Amino acid sequence: METSEVERLIEDGIEDADASVSLPRVPDEDHEDAHFAAVVVSPAFEGKSLVQQHQMVYDALGESMTTDIHAMELKTYTPEEYGDAGE
């Protein structure tokens, strides 16, 4: 699975989301260890706990979380939090 496809799934599944997905480590050619890292910014996260925000991302990724993605590092922000974090 390509990073652009992971971004598309997240952005399609969460209202007004902006996702930036990367590969945080060099893939192991001998294994299918698809490790991704995502920064997701969305006003839909407003008022939600961190666990709820991450669940929204997992829900957006759907079955890919069990078939194509081995691990996902997540950072989720509301637009205000993202601006304050200086990311």
TrEMBL record:
Taken from the record, one Pfam family name reads BolA
| Entry similarity comment | Belongs to the BolA/IbaG family.
Question: Domain of life, per the record?
Answer: Archaea
Q: What is the name of the protein in this document?
A: BolA family transcriptional regulator
Q: Which species expresses this protein natively?
A: Halogeometricum borinquense
